[in-house]
Design a protein that fits this description.
Number of helices: 10
CATH topology: TIM Barrel
Helix content: 40-55%
CATH architecture: Alpha-Beta Barrel
Number of domains: 1
Largest sheet: 8 strands, parallel, barrel
Order of helices and strands: EHEHEHEEHHEEHEHHEEEHEH
Shape: globular
CATH class: Alpha Beta
Number of strands: 12
CATH superfamily: Divalent-metal-dependent TIM barrel enzymes
Length: 305
């Protein structure tokens, strides 16, 4: 199943039906409702789905946007927050996303689990890699500092995230919707590279909770020296629900059209199955002809369906 995320075009539309018609006109039978969808777009989305004009593969939390929020904001409320009020806001808006997913017949809701409260290391490290200083003392010192802080501070944040995920999984199971925990590009966000396996040790509702692989995020982590992209995907393939598919221009510019960056999509192909949801998650700056070209490119590598 191939799909196109509305992160590509939601900002251009005031009518959800027209937004989805633009995606359908490019040849996509499915769309993902991303975290930039305002509540005002929902009536038109429902009209398009009910009329059979397009199907919805997945939703990206939070969808629709919380009232008063006017831009994509997937981390506005975090499961890891130490403030209970923020965690409850995250719970409430995630439940809204699950409700909309069930209403439109989507299979999966994609989740960010949250972050460790610490300063931003990711952008500084990307800048050093871009300057070809990743083997220097400054980079190595920064990395050691980051890893020390992550390990010392992550515990209470991970506990809160897993407790919230368990609550959400119960709601999702009742609604017949699966949850995809997405790998993140920021070094401060969780799960950390080595911690994904702990998620599957928890007592979630059946097979509700799975892994969602973002190709761009994994490639950035490889560029920073924290994982090997293909090996990381292989290690989690047994729990894989789907993909966000986009390319990366070295070292950290993602959401590029597949085939225009550095990712070796052929190396990922052995883990890609027909049942997986494969969502092109492209920058609004990608022109329509490049969307079409990237769609053909990835199908040529991963197979037609």
């Amino acid at each position: 199943m191939y799909s196109l995320s509305t992160c590509w075009n939601s900002h251009r539309h005031t009518d959800g039906r027209e937004m989805l018609r633009e995606i359908r006109a490019l040849g996509f039978d499915f769309a993902e409702l991303s975290h930039g969808v305002s509540a005002s777009l929902v009536p038109g989305i429902l009209d398009a789905v009910d009329a059979g004009e397009i199907k919805i593969s997945s939703l990206h939390n939070f969808c629709p946007l919380p009232l008063g929020v006017t831009r994509a904001a997937p981390n506005i409320f975090q499961f890891t927050a130490l403030d209970e009020r923020e965690r409850e806001s995250a719970w409430r808006h995630t439940c809204r996303t699950i409700e909309l997913a069930a209403r439109v017949g989507a299979r999966v809701v994609v989740l960010h689990l949250g972050s460790i409260e610490m300063s931003d290391y990711t952008d500084r490290m990307i800048d050093l890699v871009a300057a070809d200083e990743h083997k220097g003392k400054r980079y190595q010192k920064l990395r050691a500092e980051l890893e020390d802080k992550r390990q010392r501070r992550k515990g209470r944040h991970v506990e809160r995230a897993l407790a919230m995920l368990k609550r959400i999984a119960e709601q999702a199971a009742k609604a017949g919707v699966k949850l995809g925990v997405e790998n993140r590009e920021a070094l401060e966000e969780i799960p950390l590279e080595e911690d994904f396996g702990f998620i599957w040790d928890e007592d979630f509702a059946g097979e509700t909770v799975g892994y969602w692989h973002d190709t761009g995020h994994a490639q950035i982590k490889e560029n920073l020296g924290f994982l090997r992209h293909a090996e990381h995907l292989e290690s989690l393939a047994h729990r894989l629900h789907g993909f966000h598919v986009h390319d990366v221009r070295y070292p950290g510019r993602d959401h590029r059209a597949p085939g225009t960056g550095m990712i070796d999509f052929a190396a990922l192909a052995p883990q890609v199955l027909p049942g997986h949801i494969k969502v092109l998650e492209l920058s609004p700056s990608v022109p329509p002809q490049e969307v079409l070209g990237s769609f053909a490119y990835i199908k040529g590598i991963w197979g037609e369906e």
